[in-house]
Amino acid sequence: MLAPNSTALILVDVQQAFVQWEAQGLRRNNPDAVSNIAKLLTAFRARGMPVFHIRHASTEADSALRPDRPGFEPIEVAREHPGEAVIVKHVNASFIGTDLEEQLRDGGIKTLVIAGITTNHCVETTTRMGGNLGFDARLVSDAYYTFDRIGFDGAPESAETIHAMTLSNLSGEFATIETTDTVLAALISVAA
């Protein structure tokens, strides 16, 4: 059950830099992730439930996520509306160096529905910390994605494998794994 007065949508790093990476040829998983993020955002807004937009402002000199670069901007379907919180972070975890936890606690939020980019970086780190801080973290498995990469041993790792392993690592101990459909169904049942 997702109680409307104590549940928030947390959108992690839904930013243009990742669109740029894909345009440069990096392959990702979950092709419907951004449209699922848009569905979640529409549903939360329709019910007047809180939404928190997390943006990564890199301090790395050559990062596409620097605040003075176009990659810092949100993907348009996830742009904030007036009154929605925008939290700017400089590290992977959305709770470090920000007032996110304070805003959530002040708002009576107990459940976090988490989506965004990328699975094995800021989404995973934010989910782990949210669970460790005592929030009921709900990770929406089809509303975030990652990219293929080369592993520590030099072997290629697919985005699908990285995504699945992240889900396995987080399931149960740090978060409940959801889908866009299960979250939307829970929101409909609350409204009924």
From TrEMBL:
Q: CDD domains given for it?
A: nicotinamidase_related
All copies of domain Isochorismatase-like, residue ranges: 7-180
User: What top-level branch of life does the organism fall under?
Assistant: Bacteria
One Pfam family from the UniProt entry? Isochorismatase
Please verify whether the record's keywords include Translocase: no
One example of the protein's molecular function in GO is: hydrolase activity
Q: Which UniProt keywords apply?
A: Hydrolase
What name has this protein been given in UniProt? Isochorismatase
- What is the native source organism of this protein? Tianweitania populi
